[in-house]
Specification:
By secondary structure, this protein is α/β, with parallel strands linked by helices. The strands form two sheets. Strands 1, 2, 3, 4, 5, 6 and 7 form a seven-stranded mixed β-sheet that branches. α8 links the parallel β12 and β13. It is globular and about 65 Å long. The protein binds 2'-monophosphoadenosine-5'-diphosphate. The site of 2'-monophosphoadenosine-5'-diphosphate has 13 residues, from α6.
Length: 312
Amino acid sequence: MTGIEFNRIGAGTRYCAVLGHPIRHSGSPAMHNPAMAAMGLDWNYLAFDVHPDDLRAVLAGALSMGFIGLNLTVPHKLLAHGLVDHLDRSARQWGAVNTIRFEGMDSAGNWKPVWQFDGTGEAPSARRMHGFNTDADAVVRAIREELDLDLEGRSVLLLGAGGAGRVAALRLAAEKVARLYLVNRTLSKCESLRSEIAGLFPGVEVHVGYPEKSTRLDLIVNATSLGLREGDPLPFDASQYDPGNAANAYDMIYQPVRTPFLRIASDAGCRTANGLGMLLYQGVAALEIWSGMQVPDDIMRRALEDHIYRAS
Ligand code: ATR
């Protein structure tokens, strides 16, 4: 064998997959397959590079082929929101779908996971795609578990107001942070995010720009893509804010394990965590949604860490 693991596949094996464009970097198969095996499920988790123009056809094909469900990653999360048949509250609230569960209708008229129709008994009278968002809750869970920080009443500086930054800002506001400072290269995105939060969560104080230098912060979050590539500038301007005045720093980036942002923050005395937990917890929640079972998140974490950091 040359590093490729053999997964037993039979005619009864059921499938999940992650769709993205590109997809080669995805750690999702590496974390889901060992968990599914440990749960005693004859399931396999695959990865497909799907162009956005093909997404509608691929979703319909996976539904027809009896797939259990799908994960969506960049650039499909917004597109999928408009393509599924039914939106869970999480998907409606955060405006993006990263998890689809395929469902069938039983003879009593109830929707249930399509994998529960095993092909030998009753066939579903109808099928549908049910969209969820497990990304938003994963941010909060990662911060709570890895930084030991409950967000209610806290002051947070959020760097980045792109796709990930927007969902994080809304989710932090839903968690009742007291104060949010929004910083982004394109200022207009901060302004529209501020209006969105003011409408949905009027109790949260939102500022565009850095706090005063001496302001104590509970948390700085990097939700920009800066740090992914070697030589990237820092995601924040150290002349505007001293991270020594913040207690915690969270970087959504998980590769490298210690990003330049986290290095500077930890040198300044912050407690730090990288984005691996977010990736892990969105996956744990997706597997819970598909299976309805307790998921071994320790196995998923070990598999993911092994996959991402083994080579580095
Ligand atoms: P994602 O879905 O991962 O959030 P995105 O929506 O493209 O991806 O957002 C990328 C984030 O990184 C944005 O906040 C982006 O700033 P802009 O909104 O101004 O584009 C930020 N970003 C990317 N490259 C940057 C750079 N060179 N300097 C500053 N910010 C950058």
